[in-house]
Amino acid sequence: MVSLQPRLEKLRAGVHQLVVDGKPFMMRAGELNNSSMSSASFMRTVWPEMQRANVNTVLGGVPWDQIEPVEGQFDFSELDQIIVDARAHDIRLVLLWFGSFKNGASQYPPAWVKLDPKRFPRQKVGAIPQTANYLSVFDPKNRSRDADANAFKRLMEHVREVDGAHGTVIMVQVENETGLLGDSRDRSELANAAFEAPVPADLVELFDKQWETMNSTIRTTFAEQRKAGSIKATSTWEEAFGKSKSTDELFMAYHYAKYVGAVAAAGKAAYPIPHYTNAWLRNIPDGAEVDGATVVGFGGIFPGAYPSGGPVETVLDIWMEFAPAIDFFSPDIYMDGYDSTCALYSHRGQPLFIPEQRRDEFGAIRLWSAIGRFNALGTSPFAIDSGETPYTEHYLLLKQAAPHILDARVQGYPMDGFHFDAFAPGSPDPSPARTLHFGEWGLLVERAEVHGHPAAAYGIIIQTASNKFFLIGAGYQIKFSSNRKDATYTGLLSFDEKEVDDRGELRTGRLLNGDETQQGMAVVMPSKEIDFGDFWFIAMQVPARTRLAECTVYSLYE
Ligand code: DGJ
């Protein structure tokens, strides 16, 4: 019998699919505002909006203080109604476990945890250490960790009970943007004792055994110490790694990973659907090269300005090793550096999912890169219930194109995705043309030529046969060339508009030629709205209709 439990399946290195109802699933996701899912009656106003927005997956918080207001007494009534209502609207859920940590802080633990610092010790921050709104990850008795793990386990047991046969809940996020803000490390006595103790042997072993495959930033940061041989289990943290904020961050990451890893393991043992956690990203100076990608403008340069110890790329290997119940680590991408961040979070070929990104057009066009280039399981703008977003239009197209994208992943068809940002007339174009290589062919992908000012563009190209391409998107054009030395001419044999019928099947619409191919020079996937500039009286660019097409190319070899 086919298992209907949502699961992840690895197709090959770096390519995964999420399987829901026994079939590959593309998340057209949106994350709710933080408090929305605490009320089933509020959510009743949201479900129809989600349907109109072409969203098929909603991410929403499950607050610990709501489900366990009194220790050991659980109340799942709101959540149960939410699951039933989501299912009735044919919408899947990703539950965000707002347990010990949410945006670093411990604001969601119930009162019986918050009011008992003796039993549930806090972190301390600052030059004169002050008690902070962060549960300690250094309690030798692990009391808050275990209380959290118990609540999370009960949640997952309950979800399995009420939803196991339906698979409405498809994934779960364990905590939210973990890490300490306001200082690079906890300065409490508990933390200081751990910091002065020898470095744990399992961490030293990780550095010994996995150094070559670790993320480049961690190798750069601790290259000197590695060379000097100071990373050993007889050294304290500062003897081993030097005195720096990076050492503090490593120290925090190791302990946070173990804490959150234990919470995740408890939930996963109860109901093993995909578990992931997300990162508030670190700031990398503009132009820096990380793992071959140039980075631009993240937010907050030092650990403590971004949550110290959270799963940022520097310490991703630490999290992967010490929180093995977490299937993958996701970036919340609000700033630029979108593609380079996707590349960083594809580390060790893990599945990619963007649980939070910008809700404007700048964010929306990026979903095509995440999905087409980096094989993301899906993307999710934050605050999807704060009114209309451009994702509605993009998700409509993704809904039609997803079966072909998912199939291409299974078949192993070459595929790539891209976006070209909007820019003001007269200012430099931020998104240069690029040449993509598909077997024999070089594809020069550039903005579709218009007489006026070009719009933002986005798309995915799939090579379905040696000379055949399925094209998705708008605002771009492609010029083909052959890399064979004996090719003397490369051109187009056909360019067909594709439309999707009522059963979701593709059929051919217009046969595109003439102006629509610049007389055979290019395939043009035009924008939905075209600026004709001064040439409105000869409107030779035709606005996009379906944003789907197929073309075949040929070369003459002489
Ligand atoms: C990132 C957090 O993960 C979200 O829950 C939300 O608080 C947003 N920030 C708001 O900007």
UniProtKB/TrEMBL annotation:
DUF5597 domain span: 392-523
MF terms (GO), sorted A to Z: beta-galactosidase activity
Chain segments annotated as transmembrane: none
Keywords: Glycosidase, Hydrolase
Short name of one Pfam family: DUF5597
Limits of the Glycoside hydrolase family 42 N-terminal domain: 49-197
Keyword Hydrolase in record: yes
SUPFAM superfamilies: (Trans)glycosidases
Superkingdom field: Eukaryota
Protein known as: Glycoside hydrolase
InterPro entries linked to this entry: DUF5597 (IPR040719), GH (IPR017853), Glyco_hydro_42_N (IPR013529)
Cellular component per GO, a single term: beta-galactosidase complex
GO biological process per UniProt: carbohydrate metabolic process
Gene3D superfamilies hit by this protein: Glycosidases, putative beta-Galactosidase from caulobacter crescentus
